[in-house]
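This section describes the prediction task in plain terms. A model, or a person checking by hand, is given the sequence of a single protein chain and must write out its three-dimensional structure as a string of tokens. No templates, partner chains or ligands are provided. The sample shown here is typical of the held-out split.
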Amino acid sequence: MLVRLAMLRNLRTEWGGSEQQQLDFLHRPEHESLRDEERRELTARQLTQLAHWQLHFANDTKAAKRTAQASLALLETPYALLVLAHTSGPFKQVKILSRALELAPHDLHLGLPTLLHGWRAGGQRPLSSRACARPRTGVNHTPPTCCP
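The expected answer:
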């Protein structure tokens, strides 16, 4: 299965492949021997790759969100959650990114951007659960932009 996932990953649109090549790969006869959950995983990964491309290269946020949701309907993966978080509002992002980190706690690609730098939304400062949890005392206290 790892070899199949690597082959699918190499067909990413941003790396010179195409959505059609990915779909052709998914329908190859040698995949007929896979269990249903393995086929779902391959399809979910293909949809996640497509959602990533739609979001970051085609700049089509709505399509990326729909594709990520279709991927998540098949299999909950951290990278589909990452795309979904990027298409969601700031507070929903925190919940979605937390779930992505639960699924892959040792994945530096997920952990570093979300934990060290926060998640940027609409030009706002990085989100921080600590920043939002600060008590709002004092006359001149200005809450961070992530707080209501």
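For orientation: The chain has a mean pLDDT of 79.
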